[in-house]
Amino acid sequence: MDLVGGCRAFVSVSETGSFTAGAALARIPQPVASRRIAALERHVGERLFDRTTRRARLTPFGRDVLPSARRLVQLADAMEHDARRARLRPVRVAVPATCGVRDLAALAASARERSVRLEFRAAEPAERASLVRTGEVRAALTAVPSEEGVWSVPLGVAGTELGRVVYLETLRPGRSATPRRRVWIQPEDDVPHVRDRVLRVRDAVGLSPAQVAVAESLTSAVAEVLAGDLLLCSLAQAEELGLPWRPIGELQVARGYGVSAPLPEDADRLCSAWGEAVGRCLGVER
């Protein structure tokens, strides 16, 4: 039975001395109040009201259990109040700095339709994991190998002058119109499962160590790209930067993302309820 609903009707009728007035106080129809009180009486095994008079008079048993019923109703009201406050409290999520503002805004708007306020904190991979551990965010989109992730984002290179496919071996000095062009790895991709694979190809095709390097920031990397270098990035990121994008001939590499959260329900919600919207933020190809 609905114990809280029965107690609410019981308390309201006891305070007004009338089933009709008590139902109005509880904001329910009078027949509903009567049924709930009858169900509560069956549940506790005793009558709560003496129905031999026109007024709803408490029985001795009813007077004895009324204080407990009142406390239960008060606790239920307090819980509902706390739940409303909790729904208004923002859910902070650490996200890659590569996420587009518009896509994040669309994700936040989708969450608000479910009465959830999402707030985002852009951070690099290592910092995102740390923010979850310290409790500064409730969840983080963490960098993982693409085969282990919920989302996978293929990477290629962006630049001002590109062929249909970019082969890194063509960047060797003497085999390119622009000698010693470099490929910049941005901080988001400075993780072993991306960086190390690119560096192995660099060494295999005979590029110098300086021709594939990790940039201090995305801004500094893009500045070098505008001067003729290449940027390791996703197609979505290249489009946002207004740069042509091509796959790498010798290598298939992708960013992988999972969710780290102390509460499983927070991780499940990001993966299931908003999985497609999160993917758009990360640059998953449409």
Textual characterization of the structure:
By secondary structure, the protein is α/β, with parallel strands linked by helices. It folds into three domains: 86 residues, Winged helix-like DNA-binding domain superfamily/Winged helix DNA-binding domain (Arc Repressor Mutant, subunit A); 84 residues, D-Maltodextrin-Binding Protein, domain 2 (3-Layer(aba) Sandwich); 103 residues, D-Maltodextrin-Binding Protein, domain 2. It is built from eleven helices and eleven strands. Strands 3, 4, 5, 6, 7, 8, 9, 10 and 11 form a nine-stranded mixed sheet that branches. Strands 1-2 form a two-stranded antiparallel sheet. Helix 7 links the parallel strand 7 and strand 8. The mean pLDDT is 90.
Question: Which key terms come to mind for this protein?
Answer:
single chain, 286 residues, alpha/beta, Arc Repressor Mutant, subunit A, D-Maltodextrin-Binding Protein, domain 2, 3 domains, nine-stranded mixed β-sheet, two-stranded antiparallel ribbon, rod-shaped, DNA-binding transcription factor activity, transcription
